[in-house]
Amino acid sequence: MHTNLDPNADFRFQSGAVILDDSSKQVKKSKPARTETGLKCEHPGCKYRGSFNRKYDLQRHMAKHTTTAKFQCPLQQCQYSSYRTDKFLLHFRRAHTDEDEGICPLPGCGTGPLPWPLLKLHTRRHHEIDRGSSNVALEAIWKVPDDVCSCPIESCRGILIKVFYMQEHLRAHPYNERIENRHAILVAGYDATSTNIVCPVCRELLDGTSAFSHHLEESHIATDGTHFRMFCESLQRVGRWSLWSVITSAWVPKPFTVVRSVSCSFCSEDFPEWARVDHHIKLLRDYEPLRPHRLAILKLLPYFGAHPIFDDIRSTVYSCRYR
């Protein structure tokens, strides 16, 4: 093998690699304090003594120290506030009941104190007028759905259930547990043994929301329940409106379908695009006997909130003018 290297010559190996930087002199970024159990919050004055396994969880926690509270609990004698929707809703369903009261937080209004469902009904009118308001208490109220309530059984408190699924939820609880909580279940509007709805007016048991709605209209709301029910069913052919949306305004809503008019299937009276419904409004009974029961009815039928019996807590512009 031929080589040009002189075996007696000195040989030195020289690498062509270039040192980009001396890592020993790099400034290391500060990391959150870590204990044997995880990351700790080091914000001055933080009372949280727990730790976080992930950096993301610590960052989310730190937001409470650096973010202005978005939601202020609107109920009396409660100072809770939070910048997170989920935390506010969790607080509300664990700390409060429908019997807790509050005053309208909109400056210049001050309506109240009202039980929570009525306060929510009242402020909904402000939502229409003051959409986009920066009032944090109003924001808090609007975040709580109208058609949910807490399970009345003690072991299940804090669980929000759609009103229309409450009977199904109650049946999932053991019979003995329902009997132990029968008073709370009755206050919520249900019979502990059967889970049927208890009419707040006459105490009759109804096997479901639809049956209760029909019973209420025919026995306590309308002078001619059959006529009134058929009138409301006729309106459903041209739109999806709740029972009282037409009663509150005293007008038939403008159809959004190709159907240009509709007739009452009981009396055959026609309703063109914008038609007065005075004739059918006269089917309503005097509602004063219902007033002591209106809150209990509202909790069982959220759409009942449009009934004129609630005019006294509405903004004037939204009050029913049929009487």
From TrEMBL:
Annotated Gene Ontology cellular components are:
nucleus
Q: Which SUPFAM superfamilies match?
A: beta-beta-alpha zinc fingers (SSF57667)
Gene3D superfamilies according to UniProt: Classic Zinc Finger
Annotated signal sequence is none
Task: Enumerate the Gene Ontology biological process terms.
Answer: positive regulation of transcription by RNA polymerase II
Asked if Manganese is a keyword of the record, the answer is no
Q: Which SMART domains match?
A: ZnF_C2H2 (SM00355)
- For the C2H2-type domain, which residue ranges apply? 71-101
Under the heading InterPro entries, the entry gives: GLI_C2H2-zinc-finger, Znf_C2H2_sf, Znf_C2H2_type
Give UniProt keywords alphabetically.
Answer: Metal-binding, Repeat, Zinc, Zinc-finger
Q: Which GO terms describe its molecular function?
A: DNA-binding transcription factor activity, RNA polymerase II-specific; RNA polymerase II cis-regulatory region sequence-specific DNA binding; zinc ion binding
- Protein name stated in the entry: C2H2-type domain-containing protein
